[in-house]
Protein 1
Amino acid sequence: MKRRKVCILHVGGTIAMVWSEQGYVPRAGYVEEYLRAMEELSRPDLPDWELVRLDPLKDSADFTPEDWVRIARAVRDRADDYDGFVILHGTDTMAYTASALSYLLVGIQKPIILTGAQLPLSEVRSDGREHLITSLILAGTVHVPEVCIYFGARLLRGNRAQKVHNASFIAFDSGNYPPLATVGVNIAVRNRLIRTPKERPVGLTNLERRPEVVAMQVFPGMTERGLRRVLEEPVEGVVLETYGAGTFPASNKRLIRAIEEAIQRGVVIVNCSQCHSGQVQQELYGTGAALARAGVVSGHDMTPEAALTKLYCLLASGATPEETRRRMVEDIAGEITLEQTVPAPPL
Ligand code: ASP
């Protein structure tokens, strides 16, 4: 049987960093050298692999939507040449890139696995080594036609994942969707959780514009002045990170008025919860229902990362505010659960 072939796309992150006077910084060439010295990477029980470095290597804190597009293009251009992709990426914004790629690469029905490390390969206790080897195995052998994150012995759907720890080796979690696979002595893949590709997928491939999209966390004592500043032109999309089941300080009518006015101007505002698990139910409390009445779109159980990148990609692909509002609550790449929940108390 022909050995499968995986492309390792190296875009930066801690995994490739070395210590310097400015703290950890990426060093071009380090990963190449390291991989050459890893004898297990040439064993026949691993897929064949090739490394492609996308310069400049960056700390993912510096990533912008241009980088999502740059990575998506690199995958798309090589999609026919490989059975899967492993993307070496920083952990800080990995959940954003994974979400964006899930929309930009709909239709590429191959494993696209982002991974990285909490400790660089240049450190003796690096977690990057196992992440790299297991990601290669997963990308080369398992049928997961999705954008995923492999980290801390779990394969997570990329647009469901969030970075939840900045020091533990279990840095990611997906509070609203179970892991697609868990990795111990055996690799246990939960096939029923893996997305079955749609026949006619509707992805977002053409990002023609660079819309201004922002995220804003609701907090006790937020002022009308602060809120209006965030909603000012040229903002086109806002992820409003609310409390609990989607609540907001709605008894301050000036805040609601500011939101209504922005929506009337065409700003798309999406309600996502600050909670890591559970879903937004705007109608459950009066303090959330006021947002629904003002025209805020429910983000259901999407993570703020998945919602922000979706909003960005939709607006950037030229969707009108109306289309954007509609598509925000469509399932594009498994980022949202559309099943109905029975409200408590029943309506
Ligand atoms: N600051 C690093 C980055 O996101 C952190 C990491 O990779 O773990 O690139």
Note: The chain has two domains: 5-193, 213-328.
Protein 2
Amino acid sequence: MGTALVYDEEMTRYKLLWLDPDCEIERPERLTSSHEALLQSGLATRCVSIPVRQATDTEILLIHSQEYLEAVKKTPYMTLQDLQQFTQLYGAVYFHPNSYHCATLAVGAALQLVDGVLTGTVRNGIALVRPPGHHSMRSAASGFCIFNNVAIATKYAQKKYGVQRVLIVDWDIHHGQGVQYAFEDDPSVLYFSWHRYEHQKFWPELRDSDYDSVGKDKGLGFNINVPWNKVGMENSDYLAAFFHVLLPVAYEFCPDLVIVCAGFDSAVGDPEGEMCATPDIFAHLTHLLMNLAGGKLCAVLEGGYNLTSLGQSVCATVQTLLGDPAPRPADLQSPSQSALESIHCVRAAHRNFWSSFQHSPAAPPSEVSTKRVKREEKDERTQRGGATDSEDAVTWPEPQKRRPPPVRTAAVIPEDASCPDGCRRFNISQEDFSNDSTGASLTALVGKMEKNEICNGLALVSDVSTAMAAVIQHASALKQRVLVVCVGGTRIQSHMPEDGTTLTVHFNKEVLEEPRCKYYIPVHLKRGFGDVSGFTQATLGLLLPIAYQYDPGLVLLAQAPSKDRPSSSCWQQLVGLLLGLAQARVLVLLREGHEAFIGPTASSLTGTPAPSLGQVGASQAEDFEALDGLRRRLQVDWKLLRTSVQEHEDEDN
Ligand code: X5A
Ligand code: ZN
């Protein structure tokens, strides 16, 4: 199952024909250089090329009005003067005689991608298109956009394939108001957008882009806006928005298809966004979406105006779609105060619509409201000494090369057990499968993972504690931080070091324990692992933020003996999400007697998207409340757990 690349040079054949400082950044080179970056890095040849086509009138009319379509259709025959005049009808957009043709190809490219993914020709893919689409409305062009590629693709997927729920993730730095307007009363489409807002001072300066636009009528709750009120947002701000807003809702929504409005003007160096997130972050944003909808993900290019940053970001996204391990999310800071204010406000605005937020404080305290800052306040950009005049001054480190190991998944299993699909059998002693040889095999395996010869692995062991101790000892000799995720069991037997060389998160149903130290975190799930919503809440809102901040070099996932086991789809989600850490160096320990988990574990480790969990209903209040309480206690140490600005709690410790 491959990754589609939908691209055609024809979409580079239009440009701005007159002077307009607002529009000059939208240039043909955006596409040529992104495509060139994919060719140079060798990623393009690994993708399945899918040709573009022109969208039909009927398809364009899924979103746009007849009058608007007819008007745009006349532009190829206009004089330069007429084109300029026509352009004046709209905001921040330009027309060229070839714009209409390219706009039909951009829509057609998105539709071809949807076809590829929904027929199963490919698992996922990206469409590199111009013009972008997310600003265009039923009867209006806007912000370089003519037809709304993603909105049309969404309707098309629903109509042609009977897809029920579509999640649109708009990580472009502008608000896709066109997408919001197209679906704001439609509960079958969940639209999430973050965007530079600056209390309505940033283009398109709409009141509708704020966090309190939550959808209308039947679509109440299905429109989620995260307004960024300051420039300079970083990786941790974006991840916090994913962990604490998008992902809990997305899992609850359970989409059948994910479409990304993949604008890369949200990355560092972009003259429009002026944000500080690095291109690598798109590897993680992509990864975090790849276990939704059974992996059916279509990315459609929107903005992105710094050609270097754009090329790197496109490559980070495509390489992740292809299944290569993401780079380590090094040095994550606390989300900024301003980002936390926004996240707090969004969660509060949606608390009645999504069970994950039901314990969020009701209304943002007035001093935390993002409306607090008066609009006439001094411009942030000049205050920060940011990139007002020279965008070229912004630099960032070259992204690290991602070199996937030659072997993806090793399996340490008894001789008589058959090797799961896609795995390489890895036993030190083939003849004698005893405890000792298992230990030796495990340490040898960890050594090979460290040397980048094998990416990840699973092992069937007779005693999980002993195996765990052996792995931890060996890993610490290699000076690797180890994240231990233990599911089930009563208490971790082996004595874990508490110096930060390992971090243990222990999900269990049986015992209620207090965290012993910053590096031992027991998570009590009263209702057990059968409770899908409690499990996802704990994984998304607690485990992942801590794990990303800890940034392990190795992840050890162990299933301890327990009567209560997670469903295999929960387990696969957990494995899939953990693969975003430690460059996918994940070692899974399964206990003899749990052979049924070998297949699903292997499938996830080899990169198969986890099956959907189904629409996640509300968990019993007590679990959510307990998890929220734990999250609040731990956020002193683990700042990526924060969902709001802290007044005094921080200083308590
Ligand atoms: C697709 C996109 C931006 C328009 C900016 C107008 N449009 N100032 O990024
Ligand atoms: Zn944009």
Note: Residues 170 and 504 are 34 Å apart (CA to CA).
Protein 3
Amino acid sequence: MKIIIHGGFFSESEQSHKVKVAKQNSLKAIAKRSFEYLEKHSAAETVVFAVKLLEDNELYNAGTGSQIQSDGKIRMSASLMNGETQKFSGVINIQNVKNPIEVAEVLMKEDDRVLGDNGAKIYAKKNGFSDYSTETVQRRKEFEEKAKSGGKGTVGCVALDQNGHLAAATSTGGKGFELEGRISDSATVAGNFANQFCGVSCTGVGEDIVSNATAAKIVIRVTDGMKIEEAFRKTFSELKEIDGFAGAISIDHQGNIFHQNSHPTMVFASFDGKNFGVFE
Ligand code: ASP
């Protein structure tokens, strides 16, 4: 069993040392708690559990604490991919629900598994998700001061369970100040993808991640026999060709954990039951 989570990018110049330590500590705690959950649950259940904890933490740009868009509204996107069944589900630009990743999880049983905007909200309501404002005082302040924090804090998780199954989940409040209707990579196969060989969750500039097809490319390369490090190296060299900005976390079916980012510093924590990996 293995788990890795990320909390988007961190910039020492924009965010204080105190925030850095808070992110390190919260990621470690969530990785450990999620690993304990993984001991009794599937990879698909665990990635939802971990992402929900991250969505509930105001430090991150997902769920509570999501960034505000150019029209003053918050729209969130989240997706889940079960590597065992190779099914993907997600919500795009949903408003006023506490945990978008849980709506994505409920959608997994449907024929229509990715819903957007109002349709996603109507579905959530019908399935018992009550209205909830994910706006925080800090995000409103940033919005009013027009402090472009550049989409920092998207969250994601990849897990490998004891039956050897992989899953990936990703959730975001977007890049902040975006145009109404803009679609993030986080609920696409470029930002979140898994099969029986590999699982990947991305963060960074959604447009770059979609142009590079980052998560899907890494997974397919590992599926076709490339080592995980090599799959990352090649995919990130292609990202560099388009001057792309992204980070990704991953686990392969042999339990190798890997992560890479094009720019400093993606915040992450991994745990294997004994040892932590944490960003510096
Ligand atoms: N990828 C997210 C988006 O473009 C933002 C981020 O990961 O920071 O919506």
Note: Helices lie at 17-38, 43-55, 100-107, 117-126, 137-144, 206-212, 214-223, 228-241.
Protein 4
Amino acid sequence: MDCHVKDMGLAAKGKMRIEWAGRHMPVLKAIGERFEKEKPLKGLKVAACLHVTTETANLMKALSMGGAEIALCASNPLSTQDDVAASLVKDYGIKTFCIKGEDNDTYYSHIESVLNTKPMVTMDDGADLVSMAHGKRKDVLESIIAGTEETTTGVIRLEAMAKEKVLKYPILAVNEAMTKHFFDNRYGTGQSTLDGVIRATNILIAGSTVVIAGYGWCGKGVAMRARGLGGHVIVTEINPVKAIEAIMDGFEVMPMAEAAPKGDLFITVTGNKNVIRREHFIRMKDGAVVANSGHFNCELELEEGLYKMAEERIAVRDFVEGFRLSNGKTIYLLADGRLVNLSAAEGHPAMVMDMSFANQALGLEWILKHKDKLEKKVYVIPEEVDRMIASIKLGTMGYAIDELTEEQKKYLASWQEGT
Ligand code: ADE
């Protein structure tokens, strides 16, 4: 089969891990079982650019049960799990192109390999796939009817494309579903980011000053978990509303220039570039640890900043590199500034990815049903799909909730009744 993975000998280990994750993804499992009967994706050629993890493998499985023909590449050079990639090829028949630690050229050549399959639908995480289909590989646009996008950064890029009127096909923004960002961005990023930092460094968070740049859904999750582990948390923001939210949630808020000399651990989750720059690195304490959990490593000024400032680079341990600066201090960078949760750990747990990927699967089905009516813009998942996923998830978690009575429904639809 057309593929490029590290080592097919890892497939057996990958399969066990994929099945383990599958046990924690009951909503996706139910969707896969329905898809197998109804085949709503029969013959649909899907190009997927996602983090190649055990959770993604379960999504690929559900889509192929629905009849899709999939080609998959990574959405980040460091986020691939090589055993999963091998198993996807061997056990699930998915054309897979990704190797953990691939260089940028290989990363982009893998995106091209996926586009070479002449997809009808793109499934992206960060919009690199869509971006190539609108740039170097415009030739593939002819066959593409629509796409989905998983993450905040990708949605921002795609909205910019739509605004400039250069977007050539409709996109469904999975990230905007409540059952995605409330749980994946907050609890998923919160836990997996700290997991990545701890696996890479084994530092104690209790008693450390943790500086978190960005108080969006992801930043909120990271701040909550850093505090839960006993960290003293400082938040930096550029949005006054989010800054007030962080203050009222009980965090210290200040500009990065003030936080730089205070922090023991820095984590960026903003979606923006150069959030920690030269002027910040130079003010940091000796031994400060710096990580990024946003989609791209451009959140840290590396090429023009830390890398140029370093008089010596020290490979300390897996995913930890020291940079000795001219002031004699050493700053430790995790996972080359790539998203630390997927590079040094395994990404979000299956329990939350269950809802995110249920949105991907049902989103794809929704796109196919509505393809003739869609315009070349970014769409949000319909609320009824979102609520349906929440209801199924709640049931699988063993919880029941109340239902509105007829009287309550009437009351909510009326305006006459007051005090
Ligand atoms: N994004 C964050 N965590 C992930 C995971 N476990 N699988 C796929 N994409 C992810």
Note: The longest helix spans residues 178-201.
